[in-house]
Amino acid sequence: MGCSPNLPKTTMVKSDFGYNSKIEGEVIVTRADAVVNWVRSNSVWPMPMGLACCAIELMAAGGSRFDISRFGMEVMRFSPRQADCMIVAGTVTYKMAEVVRRIYDQMAEPKWVVAMGACASTGGMYRSYATLQGVDNIVPVDIYISGCPPRPEALLDGMMLLQEKIRNEGGSLRRTFRGRTVETKIVS
Amino acid sequence: MDAAVLIQRFPSARVLPSQDMPTVEIPASDLWAAVRFLRDEQSFDLLADLCGVEWKDRSARFGVVIHLLSTTQREYVRLHVPALGDCVPSVSSLHPGANWHEREAFDMFGITFTGHPDPRRILMWEAYPYHPLRKDFPLAGIEVPLPAADVAEVTGQTVEPAPMMGGPFVSLGGHFSEGEPSALDQSWNEEKPKA
Amino acid sequence: MKITKEISLGDVAARSEELRGENMILNMGPSHPATHGVLRLSLELDGDKVVKCDPVIGYLHRGDEKIAENMTYNQFVPYTDRLDYLAPLANNVAYAIAVEKLAGLKLPPRCEAIRVLCCEMARVSSHLLGIGVYAMDTGAWTVFMYTFNERERLYSLFEELTGARFTTSYTRIGGMTRDIPDGWLAKVSAFCDGVERTIDEVDKLLTRNGIFLERTEGIAPISKELALAYGLTGPNLRASGVPFDLRKDKPYSGYEQYEFDVPVGTKGDCFDRYLVRMEELRQSVRIIRQVIKVMPGGAWYAEDAKKIFLPPKEKVMTKMEELIQNFMLVTEGPQIPAGEVYFEAENPKGSLGFYIVSNGGGVPYRLRIRGPSFVSLSILPAIVPGNFLTDITAILGSLDFVMGECDR
Fold first, then answer.
1. DSSP secondary structure string, chain A?
2. What pLDDT score does C166 carry?
């Protein structure tokens, strides 16, 4: 079959990193970053830091009704070495904070953090002596998902946003850490 | 079981008014013997709960409240024990389940239990210097360093007081006529920003 | 050339201390797939056998009891949801009944029936998850999927009733948030048929499964005396042979009118605890069916509780007295008289107890939550030593605890 003169539609939004730039015969010519980002975004392996009630909604998202497997994320690795994204689901107390940070440090680059739920984002309704007011005080967070607990649809929406963030990144990631935006370079 | 049985056996105890179960105030010196009596002779075989309370107008600042349940007679009894000198004998040798309850009472109030096999904190970390459920400890907490020094170094995070925004917004007066509840911290409002 | 080394027996005996080596300290950390939440087990192992087990809890201690001293009684209801977050409706009901006992309120029969329905549905939800996760820990992933599927149906029902999938905050002091919507009872009835099929399916998959039996039968038997000594309640106590169920022995909220059996185990090992929960599932469905049949009409809140329950909105918008009453109740909270009360409800995990001391007013002076999971975990140092490391997941799964209740 000869090559078609009409270029097929791309799935990318930003024109710089078009997944499909040219088709010559049966070869697609594109940028390495775009392909790598596309692969990374479609196989985000979450590390569920399931601490409290949000963990149940995380498990429900993994169940058959909301099926996180559609996005390639059903491989919930509990070992930080094998995971890409840490989903902090539940209230982080000061006692647990060091554990969350240690596990974050053990994850290999590139890694992302999703703060799921009100307690992980800002401490939620637990304004007390024992609750860390937001996990972004100890780890840099990419996506915040609100809700108490967020519905599985909200979690999936957040993960889709993360996927878009991964696809659109051009060499560095912008995240929130301790109230300020920080830029970290991705090591490819 | 009637509270009178307990009073007869331990004359220094006294009955407290209560609407749901026989409630007896027992001095700390009689506590161990009373719990043993209730367990072996009155069939109160299950320790339902043991907690600390901070009282306002009683002989001791802290007290321990013990709820015992009889699975055979299907009834409860409540014991109030004033913690004179913040100290109460441990009943964990009679009811091993009291072990963790007593650790929690120590953690939250600072009540020491003599004869406890393992007096450590249970809910807060070992190095935490305060007893959170005391009335003079604020809900937001007091600043202390994070338990893990290496994480604190990397992140610069401490155990900071939670942002209360002038709250909690409850009226603790208890009478309708005292007026509306208002913010406890009146130093800032729409016109005057927080200092 | 053969090289042999002469070893005298005396030599080996003298070196046996050195040969034995040290016990290994293993940390089964707070972040672990099989610890059902943030529980840390500090284990001392002799090879594969556990010699000492020290559970470290408090990783989810959020300060609920202190928060309660700064909230009105109705404002605290969402915090009770998150105690046992697998059966939030049961916690809501237990808390509401405790405060109502302190206030001396009598509730109309419809309200009590709705509460029983909520409790039993919460029990079905919690046991389905408990069994599903227990099976997943012992290797049966399919059971987890089936039970989660059923729970999704329950979530749809809860959402229609209360507005939220699982952190429901459905009760208020003196009644409920709203009445049952039309047509909801028929859906619950249809759900009961479906869940019975799933229970049978799970039963077929697990109860006579050789692998499951090997992993659970005879593991960590808890004798009657040990269970009573440690204060265990609920299915854990009943599996050890003590026939104590608060719904039958100290009935509340109209439980005495429903017919149901209470399963009691014999050996108290992990398998017995699983069997007790399976049977409780069937009995809960039985109770749900009875409640649907007898659901009485009438008021769904205590209409005479003027200082405790919010008046109906149409009166608030039109009459002065109800307007003031509404304002006072929302700002100051339900006015509960001074006194103390201790009430335990039969929650799916055990007896959830609330000890409330009130000095009058809308805010409690002391609110103590007796979490059944706190007590269930305290027995671990007594039953885990002597078992293998891999048995720990079976023991933890069979005790069915949840850290929200344990750490509060």
1. -PPPSSPPPPS-SSGGG-S--EEETTEEE--HHHHHHHHHHHT--EEEEE-SHHHHHHHHHHSTTT-GGGGT------SGGG-SEEEEESPPBHHHHHHHHHHHHHSPSS-EEEEEHHHHHH-TT--STTB-S-GGGTS-BSEEE-SSSPPHHHHHHHHHHHHHHHHH--SEEEEEETTEEEEEE---
2. 84
- pTM given for the model: 0.88
Q: Is residue A15 part of a domain?
A: no
User: In this structure, is residue C394 part of a structural domain?
Assistant: yes
User: What's the per-residue H, E or C state across A17-50?
Assistant: HCCCCEEECCEEECCHHHHHHHHHHHCCCEEEEE
CATH 3.10.20.310 applies to domain B3-122? no
pLDDT class for A18, splitting at 50, 70, 90? very low
d(CA A33, CA A43): 16
* Helix residue ranges, H only, C138-223: 141-162, 184-206, 210-216
| Cα dihedral C155→C156→C162→C168 (10° resolution) | 20
Q: Evaluate whether residue C25 is within a structural domain.
A: no
Q: Give the DSSP letter string of B152-166.
A: HHHH--EEPPP--TT
Which residues touch A160 (CB under 8 Å, ≥6 apart)?
A71
Interchain pair C30, A99: CB under 8 A: yes
Find the CB nearest B140 among A102, A127, A178: A127
Is the predicted pLDDT of residue B6 greater than 70, yes or no?
A: yes
Q: What residue type is assigned to position B48 of the chain?
A: A
Per-residue pLDDT tens digits for B28-64:
898 999 999 999 888 899 999 999 999 988 888 999 9
In a domain, C28, yes or no: no
Q: Is A13 in the C-facing interface, judged by CB distances under 8 Å?
A: no
Q: Which domain holds residue C239?
A: 64-407
Cβ of B125 and A95 within 8 Å? yes
Q: Which of C366, C377, C379, C370 minimizes the C-alpha distance to C351? A: C370
Cα–Cα distance list, C227 to B83, C280, C346, C348 (Å): 29, 19, 17, 17
CB < 8 Å to B21, chain C: 342
Query: Tell me, what CATH number does C76's domain have?
Result: 1.10.645.10
> Are A178 and B132 in contact (CB < 8 Å)?
no
Q: Which residues, numbered 297 to 316 in chain C, qualify as contacts with chain B under a Cβ-Cβ cut-off of 8 Å?
A: none
DSSP C310-329: PPPHHHHHH-HHHHHHHHHH
Residue C179 has pLDDT above 70, yes or no: yes
Which ipTM was obtained for this model? 0.88
Beta-ladder partners of B187: none
Domain count of the fold of chain A:
1
Whether the Cβ atoms of residue B33 and residue B94 lie closer than 8 Å to each other? no
Instruction: Show the domain range for A48.
Output: 39-185
pLDDT of amino acid B162: 80
C403 contact partners, CB below 8 Å, separation of at least 6:
A52, C36, C37, C38, C39, C57, C59, C60, C373
Q: Do C57 and B123 touch (CB under 8 A)?
A: yes
Reduce the DSSP state of residue C271 to 3 states and report it. Answer: helix
CA dist., res. B74 & res. C13, Å (int)? 57
